[in-house]
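call fold target=Phosphopantetheine adenylyltransferase
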Amino acid sequence: MRRAVYPGSFDPVTFGHLDIIRRSATLVDELVVGVLNNSSKTPLFSVEERVNILLEATKDIPNVRVESFSGLSVDFAKNCGARFIVRGLRAITDFDYELQLAQTNRIMNAEVDTLFLATSLEYAYLSSSTVKEVASYGGDVSKFVPPFVVDKIYNKIWSKKNQK
């Protein structure tokens, strides 16, 4: 079985992420979307919320499963029995970082390769950070994320602002 992992924070998941998920799912028998639980960052959504959002966003893709993980992506891939790590590339700046990461992962585990997919042009500008920034100023994020995620973003930002 050809299995790959697509690791990321997905905070929040964007149409760009979903583009990579859909396209990479056609290349493998099973794609495991790994939601990173990174204790050094303060995400907008908890890891459980991000997993649930991704489960909803990918429910129509039968060979995709969603899991959370901590630690290194290459270790997550090994634990999942995956031979490939999928990474999306938006721009040349992504490539420099991602190539270094892929080479490091290859040294750490020679049985895991990295598959790079160029993001579709309509999503090349898009990042989760941009979505959060636009939403924090009340901007319209409906062109960036699935419809059911839009209200979740605004509600989360509103509740965090009211906690301060």
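return ok
The longest strand covers residues 30-36. The chain is about 45% helix and 20% strand.
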